[in-house]
Amino acid sequence: MKQKVVTAVSIAALAGISVIGIGFFAEPFAQTEKTAQAAVSQSADVVKETVLVTEVSTVIASEEADSISLEQTTEPVGRELKKPVSSSRVSKEDIFYMMLNSIDYYDKISGTIYVHYGNIDFYEAVTFQCALSDTAAYAHEIQYDCNQPAAASAAECAEQMKSAKAAVLRDVETSCTGEQLYYVDHSRSAYRQEQSYNITTLEQAGPVSDEERHFTMDDGFPAYSYRANPTNIPSASICLFPQEMTFGYLTDTDLWEIKGVEKLNGRTCYHITGVTGAEYGKKRNVASFEFFVDTNTGVLLKYVGYDTNGNISDYLYTENMQFEEKAEAVKAASIPRSYQNEG
User: Fold this and answer.
1) Whole-prediction pTM
2) Average pLDDT over residues 126-132
3) Per DSSP, which regions of 35-132 are E strands?
4) Could you tell me which residues come within 8 angstroms of residue 233 by beta carbon, excluding any fewer than 6 positions away?
5) Distance separating alpha carbons of residues 87 and 84, to the nearest angstrom
């Protein structure tokens, strides 16, 4: 039976979302919370839902092998993608809703993101591949100690992470093979396997009308409806399916403007600049911001948040971003046999 899940979150709750629910502090395969309050505690960009999966995956192993390989055996499914509005006549509302529904505009995607949030003391790199129609995804997430100045580009992030000062705090791989999820923690030499009820498919992330995405509740507070996240890569949601950032920064269209259309790493992007609302800006320690939004998909390819002194507080940088036939095939995680199976 096809299901559609909508999670409503008030503006007060949105401003109170803890960013440590994004990325490594988010339990990758935690069962979905069904209430808005619980959704807020985990971060709105990491909504998961129970779903029945029919694809089959296989664990390949041999007596001689030093590791267990996870082989993707699902067959690709044909899918018609939504067409973006032409950049020559695009409106703020068009960009807003395209970002909220970015998963409708692409099927396969791969790349690397570098993320830092100004009110926490780590930053992370996530290399990923995702094929939505196949319910297949892979991510390698490395969290680093944040003891260096804020980087100004993806190249600078990569260089910092190679330096001796960038101590690795956590190193994990996640793999969604269609029927099962695997979580490999290299920093703890452990892994675990989760069942299909923790996977989100495209069907589970069914469309939500524009009118339902944000509205006013009976108590007068505005509220927001989040679609479930079928990328199965919560740590990369800020880029691939940026619902929380879109609601937080772009709902009030008077606070931002479209500066123009620019190229970024070979992709055509909307360059957006703006200031933050009081509550959301305080929570993120951001007074003004820049977005570079892919014009074809609504994927957030670059974000920089500045504090009241104009210094970089938050950032998202991307590199090697590829879509559809150019996207890398979804990689299989490898589990060393010496690792402890935690269930």
Assistant:
1) 0.78
2) 97
3) 57-60, 67-72, 108-116, 122-131
4) 126, 128, 130, 137, 139, 174, 240
5) 8
